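QA checklist item 7 of 12: single-chain prediction sanity check.
[x] sequence parsed
[x] length recorded as 144
[x] structure emitted
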Amino acid sequence: MEDSTAGFVVSCVLQMVGFGAAVSMIGIFLDYRRLRNLARRGVEGEAVSTTQEYAGGGQYRVYYEVRLPEGEPKAEFHERQRGMVDLGVVVPVVYDRRRPRRGKTGFLKDIDYRAEQLAVFVIGYGGVAMYVAGIVLLIMVKGW
């Protein structure tokens, strides 16, 4: 299999597809980690919508101020939502007590990260495996 052109081409294709799959999962991986951490150590509370700005595609970036117990520093987070939101409205929120800037509107029981987890495990880790297989094949073909 030494100096095989077909092996070299297959190696390059595996590396490119694997790298592309792994890189395309970075955003979903970050969402998965955020939701998983909120599900594990999230605390239910309240937040007030303070400002909003148009984010494109009919979505608005809405900023919320988390109502924390007295004496704790002010925390704010934002979410993209469809349609405009009334400002000053109190909404239920789940936030991380360690990092209150990480929050999500809704209730703790509604947080579901299984879809993101499946995508990360199948496409992300599958891409890493393809990339490693491509490198191993390249080493075998070139005889390094």
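[x] summary fact logged: The radius of gyration is 22 Å.
[ ] second reviewer sign-off
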